[in-house]
Design brief:
Layout: E1 3-6, E2 21-24, E3 36-40, E4 43-49, E5 53-62, E6 69-82, E7 90-101, E8 104-123, E9 128-145, E10 148-161, E11 170-177, E12 181-188, E13 195-197
Parallel strand pairs: 1-8
Antiparallel strand pairs: 2-3, 3-4, 4-5, 5-6, 6-7, 7-8, 8-9, 9-10, 10-11, 11-12, 12-13
């Protein structure tokens, strides 16, 4: 309640530009239940919705050189947002599935915790936006392949306008394949570019 999230001094990196896209999905063989995809930098999320929840069917992650493209397919889908949005509402659950990688299909287990943990004002480089709430998401995916442990951790903060909660207006996400790479993405639909920063992860970039 009455929180201020200040991103107004963000550094701009325009060397890499990508769009933030929400698109309809039909007939995707990897994510057959998905009806929408949400693209943010190196992650494409696939999901569908019911009257009471948003269901994550999985996500495609570009882990870079070495691991390449990873399709994280969640068995039965994962309810990670409940409707209507209410301050303090939480979801905590386990999930499992298969990660399709260049090394083959690898079974995985995972955990997710999401919570609407604040309401207030979002300060961006070009404007202040009132009546915003934040959804915090932490999920982990763990797998073992040829005696190697693989752990993917995503920490994501999604900011929504109370009057338009269907699509986030701002995202601050960190995606890490432990011991391989770590990337921070700060994305905003109110600005013109997207920056991806895979090295200096403490200096965020915005689009």
């Amino acid at each position: 309640a009455n929180v201020t999230w200040d991103y107004s001094n963000g550094a701009m990196d325009v060397n890499e530009t990508q769009g933030l896209v929400v698109a309809a999905v039909s007939g995707n063989t990897t994510y057959p239940n998905a009806t929408k995809s949400f693209s943010q930098g190196t992650i494409d999320q696939y999901y569908h919705s019911t009257a009471s929840a948003r269901i994550l069917d999985g996500y495609k992650y570009d882990a870079g050189e070495g691991l390449g493209i990873i399709d994280v397919v969640i068995t039965g889908g994962l309810s990670y947002i409940t409707y209507p949005f209410n301050y303090g509402s939480t979801v905590a659950t386990n999930f499992s599935g298969t990660a399709a990688t260049g090394m083959g299909n690898i079974p995985f287990t995972g955990k997710i915790f999401s919570k609407i943990d604040g309401t207030g004002t979002l300060k961006l480089m070009d404007q202040d936006i009132n009546d915003v709430f934040r959804l915090s998401i932490i999920d982990t995916v763990s797998a073992t392949f040829m005696a190697f442990n693989i752990n993917l951790i995503r920490t994501q903060y999604e900011y929504y306008e109370t009057a338009n909660p269907s699509v986030p207006l701002f995202i601050d996400a960190t995606i890490e394949v432990v011991g391989v790479n770590k990337e921070r993405q700060v994305l905003s639909k109110n600005l013109a570019q997207v920056g991806l920063n895979t090295v200096a992860i403490d200096n965020f970039v915005v689009y």
